[in-house]
Specification:
5-stranded antiparallel sheet; alpha+beta; about 50% helix; 5 strands; about 200 residues; globular
């Protein structure tokens, strides 16, 4: 699509949307302006991916929330954690015991002095932290005992500690915001049953 066609398409969008886009993205190319304006004009898609609060802190889209922290490591913290991650081949499958957990990752920063811990989960922030404390407390305490000031996952101070180090996302996208971990598991089992049924027919 040429520049003129892009401009024509942009002009067909609601004036209020065009004004917002022009104001915020004055220096952007027309192709980007058009794409953003089309998204903003699509009220159904915007509502489906609306970003709200995960409760105490963090962002939420549909049923899925995010948590990102940057934590100060103890002097040998990175070394200890690397030993553990090497032992399990970087595979944290045991964390699946927290039935609302979509993913989690650990990244070392600033010459191994800080740890980025990021995760996506179903539901609200407080119950998610409670799940860690009740379902995988030993796992959490072993990993996070390498962090300066870690009070322990069952400590009454742990939530304030996490909040202190959490960096709420400024923007958040979830491909399937209404698909919880439980629902994804159910759909997977359903698909496997259908495939078995079709296989048995042949």
């Amino acid at each position: 699509m040429g520049e003129k066609d892009l401009q024509d398409s942009f002009q067909k969008l609601p004036e209020a949307v065009r004004e917002k886009v022009d104001s915020a993205l004055a220096d952007a190319k027309i192709a980007l302006k058009l794409r953003i304006a089309e998204l903003l004009a699509d009220k159904e898609e915007m509502a489906r991916h609306a970003v709200t609060t995960a409760g105490r802190i963090g962002a939420k889209s549909g049923e899925v929330s995010e948590l990102t922290t940057i934590l100060p490591l103890k002097p040998d913290g990175a070394k200890q954690l690397r030993k553990f991650f090497k032992l399990v081949g970087g595979n944290l499958a045991g964390a699946g015991q927290v039935g609302t957990l979509h993913n989690m990752r650990f990244v070392f920063l600033e010459n191994d002095t800080k740890l980025l811990f990021a995760t996506a989960f179903d539901g609200e922030w407080d119950p998610y932290i409670d799940d860690f404390a009740t379902k995988i407390p030993d796992f959490m305490d072993y990993l996070f005992s390498n962090v300066e000031g870690w009070p322990g996952i069952t400590s009454p101070d742990v939530k304030e500690f996490i909040v202190k180090h959490q960096l709420p996302a400024e923007a958040w996208y979830v491909a399937h915001p209404d698909l919880t971990v439980a629902e994804a598991g159910r759909l997977k089992r359903q698909e496997a049953a259908v495939q078995r049924f079709l296989s048995d027919l042949n």
